[in-house]
Amino acid sequence: MAKKQTAGRDNLGDFAPQFAALNDDVLFGQVWARESEMSPRDRSLITCSALMAQGLFPQLESHMKIAKQNGVTKDEMVELITHLAFYAGWPKAWSAFGIAKKIFTD
């Protein structure tokens, strides 16, 4: 079962309460919770791919941490980044590897 997300309310609850509620309740509460349709692990792989491809590295770092919690291994993340380097760009892969090295090196 997906962990209850509170990042929206924790970070933006006072400033943008509707956005925070949509983030926590809809995106993470409803979409990510559809585990019978797709596992959290697979959602993490897809999300990390999309964030890397767009160069959204602060969000990528957060989602790599979630991916690790969802069972994505270091080897799988390395393969994801290597594969996407040819589609999303070499500099983005270098940036993503810096994040992955920090998260997946214990």
Automatic annotation (TrEMBL):
<feature type="domain" description="Carboxymuconolactone decarboxylase-like">
    <location>
        <begin position="17"/>
        <end position="101"/>
    </location>
</feature>
<protein>
    <submittedName>
        <fullName>Carboxymuconolactone decarboxylase family protein</fullName>
    </submittedName>
</protein>
<dbReference type="GO" id="GO:0051920">
    <property type="term" value="F:peroxiredoxin activity"/>
</dbReference>
<dbReference type="InterPro" id="IPR052512">
    <property type="entry name" value="4CMD/NDH-1_regulator"/>
</dbReference>
<dbReference type="InterPro" id="IPR003779">
    <property type="entry name" value="CMD-like"/>
</dbReference>
<dbReference type="InterPro" id="IPR029032">
    <property type="entry name" value="AhpD-like"/>
</dbReference>
<dbReference type="Pfam" id="PF02627">
    <property type="entry name" value="CMD"/>
</dbReference>
